Amino acid sequence: DAGITQSPRHKVTETGTPVTLRCHQTENHRYMYWYRQDPGHGLRLIHYSYGVKDTDKGEVSDGYSVSRSKTEDFLLTLESATSSQTSVYFCAISGGQVGQPQHFGDGTRLSIL
Amino acid sequence: GQSLEQPSEVTAVEGAIVQINCTYQTSGFYGLSWYQQHDGGAPTFLSYNALDGLEETGRFSSFLSRSDSYGYLLLQELQMKDSASYFCAFPGGGYQKVTFGIGTKLQVIP
Fold first, then answer.
1. Over residues B54-82, mean pLDDT
2. How much is the average pLDDT of B53-67?
3. What is the pLDDT of residues A80-112, one digit of tens each?
4. Chain B residues with CB inside 8 Å of A43's CB?
5. Residues of chain A contacting residue B98, judged by C-beta atoms under 8 Å apart
C-alpha cells in the first residue's frame, strides 16, 4: 500500500473556527491532491500541488487554502469553517504519469456544527 | 467541459455478472480509469484503459470505446464483498489531475 497518512481521522468543530488537515506521504511523489466527498457529488478536487510551494485551485476551492513546504506534507486549511464544509476529505498522491493511479489516504471525517 | 455519467445504483445477485457503464465528455482524452470504494473506506484503483478494447484482471474487466466515448466495468462471479461504489474517472487538465464520476453504488444480494 502507498504510504499516505491523513490526520486527524475525525474532527468535530464549531462554525467560524480554523481547521487544518494534514496529509503525509512517504512515497516521494510529486503530485498531491485534496478532495472532498459528499453524497451525490462524488469526489471533487479542492486544491492540488505539483511540487514544493507549487499549488493551484481545483473546482471547489472557495473557503480553502493549502500549503506544501516539504515534498511529504500537504496541508489543507479551512480559515473559518462553515457548516457547508462538513464532509469527508481525502488526500491523494500520484506518481505523475498519465494513467497512473492515484493513491488515497483513509480520509478525514469533518463535522462543523 | 469535462463530465462523466454513470448510473447511481445497481443491484445484482451473488454469483452473477454485472456491467457498470460510463459515458464521458472531454477534450484531450487519455484514457479511462475505474476505482472501487467500500463504505467508510478510501477509493482504490482498479484499472486503466488507454486503448480501445477489453482489459481483464481476474474477475474484473474494463472496456473502452473511444469512438463512442464509452466504457464499462464488468464484474463476474459476484461476491458479497463486491458491494461497493465504483467510480469511472479520466486523467486530464494537466498535473495528472483526475476527474471522477459521481459513482455507482453496487449492491450484491444473496
1. 96
2. 95
3. 999 999 999 999 999 877 778 899 999 999 999
4. 43, 87, 100
5. 94, 102
Per the DSSP assignment, residues forming a β-bridge with B106 are: B10, B84
Q: Which three cell numbers stand for residue A59?
A: 473546482
Minimal C-alpha gap between A7 and chain B (Å): 14
Chain A residues with CB under 8 Å of B30 CB are 98-99
Q: Which long-range contacts (CB under 8 A, 24 or more apart) does A40-43 make?
A: A40/B102, A41/B102, A42/B87, A42/B100, A42/B101, A42/B102, A42/B103, A43/A90, A43/B43, A43/B87, A43/B100
Give the strand pairing for A31-38 and A64-70.
unpaired
For residue B101, give the nearest of A42, A48, A97 by CB distance.
A42
Q: How confident is the model at residue B93 (pLDDT cuts 50, 70, 90)?
A: low
Burial A12-48 (b: 16+ CB within 10 A, else e): ebeeeeebebebbbeeebbbbbbbbbeeeebbbbbbb
Q: Would you say residue A2 has pLDDT above 70?
A: no
